[in-house]
Specification:
With 370 residues, the chain is of the alpha+beta class. The chain is built from 10 helices and 16 strands. The strands form 4 sheets. The chain has an 8-stranded mixed β-sheet. A 4-stranded antiparallel β-sheet has the order 8-13-10-11, with no helix packed on it. It has a two-stranded antiparallel ribbon with strand order 1-5. Strand 10 and strand 11 form a beta hairpin. It starts with 19 loop residues before the first strand and ends with a helix. It catalyses: gibberellin A12 + 2 2-oxoglutarate + 3 O2 + H(+) = gibberellin A9 + 2 succinate + 3 CO2 + 2 H2O. One of its GO terms (biological process) is gibberellin biosynthetic process. This is Gibberellin 20-oxidase. InterPro entries: DIOX_N, IPNS-like_FE2OG_OXY, IPNS-like_sf, Iron_ascorbate_oxido_reductase, Oxoglu/Fe-dep_dioxygenase_dom.
Length: 370
C-alpha cells in the first residue's frame, strides 16, 4: 500500500522542483516507526481520545418548512455555533441515502486501483485538482497520511463527467456521471444552507444564495489508510478551509476533530448527517461575525477511513464583500473586497491555512495596492 501524500486544496509545489515519488510501502507490524516525513512535532501530535463535541443537529426540513418559530429557533442555533467555532451538522437534508452509499463505494473503486491507473489523474504542478499521493516537492515534512482525488464542478455544465471521460476513458463515464449528479445535489444543499446562514446573520434569505448560484466549486474524495503509528501522524493537519463552505459526509470511522474552547474535540460520525463548516471566504462575507472552522483529521491502525467533501466556492468574477447590513460602527468593515482567485493566489504564495489567514491576506492586499 502506498503512503498517501499532502493534498491540501491550495497547497502548491515549488515550480522549480519536480515531484519526487517516495513510493514507500506501508509499515509492517514489526516496524517500530513510520517514515520521518509523516511524523508530526510533539506539540502537534494527535490526541487519540479527545472529548466528544456536543452540538445539536440542524433540521433542514424544519428550516425549509417556513414555520416562523421553528425557523427562528434554528437560526439562533446556527448563529451561536458559527460565532463560536464555525461548525454544525445538518439532518433531514433531503439527500438520498442511496446516493451517499454509492459515493462511498466508488471511493473504494478508485483508490483500490493500481497506482498507474490512478496516476492518469495525477495532479500537476500549479494545479489544484487531480489525484494526489506520496511525493516530496515543496513540502518534505509533516505530510498527511492520505490519498485524495479532487475535481472541479460548475452548475449547468458537464465539467465532472467530461473530466473523467477525457482523463480515464469510456470505462469511467458512469463514474463521472455519478459524481456529476452528486455535486449537483451538494450544490443545491449548499445553496439552501446559504439561505440559512443569511437569515442567521439577519440579512435576506436570498442574499448569499444568489451570490453562490453560479458557483465554481471543488469536490474531493478522501482516503485515509490504516497507519501503524497513528499517535505520530495526522490524516490532515490543523487548518481552516480557505473556501466558503464545506459540506462533508464521513463514513462511520471516527477521525474528524474540531478545535473548540482551546482543545481538540472529536466529531462522531452520524450516517444521516452532513458536517458543515465555515471557510475563510464566507468569514469575510460575514464581516468576521462567523468564524472559519479550525479542524483536522486523525488516523487509526485498524481500518480505512473515507470522506466526501464538497467545497463551495464563488464564481471567479464575484467580488467578495460583506453586505452593508453587517458593517456597523461596532463592527466596521474588516476585510478588503476581493475575488476568490485573489485569496487563492495568496494561499499559494504563502501556504497559509490557519485562523490568521484572512488578517494576513488583508495586509497583503493593502501592501499590494500601495
Amino acid at each position: 500500500m502506498l503512503i498517501p501524500h499532502p493534498s491540501m486544496l491550495l497547497a502548491s509545489q515549488n515550480t522549480n522542483m519536480e515531484p519526487q515519488q517516495i513510493n514507500l510501502q506501508a509499515p509492517t507490524p514489526n516496524q517500530s516507526n513510520i517514515p520521518s516525513e509523516f511524523v508530526w512535532p510533539d506539540n502537534e501530535k494527535p490526541c487519540l481520545e479527545p472529548p466528544k463535541l456536543k452540538i445539536p443537529p440542524i433540521d433542514m426540513k424544519g428550516f425549509l418548512s417556513g414555520d416562523p418559530e421553528t425557523v427562528s429557533a434554528i437560526c439562533a442555533e446556527v448563529n451561536a455555533a458559527c460565532r463560536k467555532h464555525g461548525f454544525f451538522l445538518v439532518v433531514n437534508h433531503g439527500v438520498d441515502k442511496k446516493l451517499v452509499e454509492k459515493a462511498h463505494k466508488l471511493i473504494d473503486t478508485f483508490f483500490c486501483m493500481e497506482l498507474p491507473e490512478k496516476q492518469k489523474l495525477q495532479r500537476k504542478l500549479g494545479e489544484h485538482c487531480g489525484y494526489a499521493n506520496s511525493f516530496i516537492g515543496r513540502f518534505s515534512s509533516k505530510l498527511p497520511w492520505k490519498e485524495t482525488l479532487s475535481f472541479h464542478y460548475a452548475p449547468d455544465t458537464k465539467t465532472v463527467e467530461d473530466y473523467f471521460l477525457n482523463s480515464m476513458g469510456e470505462e469511467f463515464r458512469e463514474f463521472g456521471s455519478f459524481f456529476q449528479e452528486y455535486c449537483e445535489v451538494m450544490s443545491n444543499l449548499s445553496l439552501e444552507i446559504m439561505e440559512l446562514l443569511g437569515m442567521s446573520l439577519g440579512v435576506s434569505r436570498e442574499c448569499f444564495r444568489d451570490f453562490f448560484k453560479n458557483n465554481e466549486s471543488v469536490m474531493r474524495l478522501n482516503y485515509y489508510p490504516p497507519c501503524h503509528k497513528p499517535e505520530l501522524a495526522l490524516g490532515t493537519g490543523p487548518h481552516c478551509d480557505p473556501t466558503s463552505l464545506t459540506v462533508l459526509h464521513q463514513d462511520q470511522v471516527e477521525g474528524l476533530q474540531v478545535f473548540v474552547d482551546g482543545k481538540w474535540c472529536s466529531v462522531a460520525p452520524k450516517e444521516d448527517a452532513f458536517v458543515v463548516n465555515i471557510g475563510d471566504t464566507f468569514m469575510a462575507l460575514s464581516n468576521g461575525i462567523f468564524k472559519s472552522c479550525l479542524h483536522r483529521a486523525v488516523v487509526n491502525n485498524q481500518i480505512v477511513r473515507k470522506s466526501l467533501a464538497f467545497f463551495l466556492c464563488p464564481n471567479k468574477d464575484k467580488v467578495v464583500s460583506a453586505p452593508k447590513e453587517l458593517i456597523t460602527v461596532e463592527n466596521p468593515k474588516k476585510y478588503p473586497d476581493f475575488t476568490w482567485p485573489n485569496l487563492l493566489e495568496f494561499t499559494q504564495l504563502h501556504y497559509r491555512s490557519d485562523p490568521e489567514t484572512l488578517d494576513a491576506f488583508a495586509n497583503w492586499v493593502l501592501e499590494k495596492n500601495k
